[in-house]
Design brief:
single chain; 113 residues; mainly alpha
Length: 113
C-alpha cells in the first residue's frame, strides 16, 4: 500500500526524493541473472536492456547508464493479489528479501492495517 509504513521505508515519504541501496552492484547482478538464464554475450544484452530503459526515460545510472532527465528517478510497481492467495504467493520481508517471521503470515499483518 502506498500509505503503509513498512519496516524499511515509507514509500509515500521517500518516493519523490528517491530511495536506493547504493552499495548494490546492480549492473553485475543484472549480468549474473542473464548468465544464469543461459544467455550468451550477457554484457551486450545488458547494454541493450539499459539502452531500452533509457529510451523510455528511466533512470539507468545505477546500471552504468544515464540519469533520467526529470531528476526524479522514483518508480513503484504495485502488484495486486487476491487476499485468499497472499500467503501462497508472497511473504513478509526485511530489506534485501530476508524473511520477516514476525509479520508472518503476511495476510494477518496486512489485515491489521
Amino acid at each position: 500500500s502506498l500509505s503503509a509504513k513498512g519496516p524499511e521505508v515509507c514509500l509515500a515519504k521517500a518516493f519523490v526524493s528517491g530511495y536506493s541501496c547504493i552499495d548494490v552492484p546492480f549492473r553485475q547482478i543484472l549480468e549474473h541473472l542473464l548468465q544464469s538464464c543461459c544467455f550468451s554475450e550477457v554484457a551486450k544484452l545488458a547494454d541493450g536492456i539499459v539502452s531500452c530503459a533509457e529510451r523510455h526515460g528511466l533512470d539507468t545510472s545505477a546500471f552504468g547508464g544515464r540519469a533520467c532527465k526529470g531528476g526524479r528517478p522514483g518508480h513503484a510497481l504495485q502488484i495486486f493479489i487476491r487476499r485468499s492467495l497472499v500467503d501462497r504467493l508472497a511473504y513478509a520481508a526485511h530489506p534485501y528479501g530476508l524473511v520477516d517471521a514476525e509479520r508472518m503470515p503476511l495476510s494477518s499483518w496486512l489485515n491489521g492495517d
